[in-house]
Amino acid sequence: PCSTIQYALDLAEDEDVVEVVAGHVCLGPGNVDVVFPAQLAVVEVRTRFFSTPTEEIPAAIDCREEGRALLFPNEQGPEVRVSDLIIRNCRAPTQTSRSSQQSPSLPSQPSASAISPHGGAILCAPGASPTFQSLLIQGCKAPQGGGGAIFWHGPHPPRGLGTCSFYSNTAAYGHDLATPPTGLRLAPVALPPAD
C-alpha cells in the first residue's frame, strides 16, 4: 500500500492499477496536484469497491481549494484512465496565487502546465487525451480560466465525459468543461439601413 496517489503513480509501471479504498478521502500533498508521469502509457486510478459500486461510496479526492486534483502534462492517450472517483473542492491557480506559489518539487511536474489558470479539477495539456469514467466532480473552480471541472487542449475531448457528473463548478468560461477557442473568426455583418 502507498500513502498517496502521487507516490503510487511514481512507483507504477505500464498496465498497473492504482486503487483507492471505497469511502476513503484523499487529502493534502501527494493527493492534490497529482501529476501523471510521462512514462506511463497504460495505467488506471480507480476506487476499489469491496461489494457493488451501488452499495458503497466511491473514494474521493478533496483538494480543499489547495490546488487541482489531476494534471496530465504529456501526451497520455485513452489507455490512461481515471474512474469511479469523487473529485471536489479543487481550484486552479490564479494570477495572484501563481506569483507566490511554492509548489512541491515533483520530478515530473512541468511548471507551465502546473500554473495554468485552466482546469479547476483536471488539466489536460496539449496532446493528452485520457479516459474519464464515472467521475463526480463538484465544487471546483477556475476563476481566471476555463473549465471549472476539466480543461483540455486540442480538438478531441477526453473519452468518457458522458459517464461523468458535474455539480456546482465555476470558471471564467465553461463552468464544467472547456477547451481553447478553435480559431473561429466572426465576420462583420452589414445591416441594411432602417426605414
Q: Layout of SSEs?
A:
Layout: H1 5-11, E1 16-21, E2 25-26, E3 34-35, E4 43-48, E5 59-62, E6 70-72, E7 80-83, E8 85-88, H2 95-100, H3 111-114, E9 122-124, E10 131-133, E11 136-138, E12 141-146, E13 150-152, E14 165-167, E15 170-173, E16 177-178
Parallel strand pairs: 1-4, 2-5, 3-6, 4-7, 5-8, 6-9, 7-10, 8-11, 9-13, 11-14, 12-15, 13-16
What does this molecule look like?
- There is one protein chain.
- The protein has 195 residues and is mainly beta.
- It contains three helices and 16 strands.
- A five-stranded parallel sheet has the order 2-5-8-11-14, with no helix packed on it.
- The longest helix has 7 residues, at 5-11.
- It is globular.
- Mean pLDDT is 82; it is low at 98-111 and 182-186.
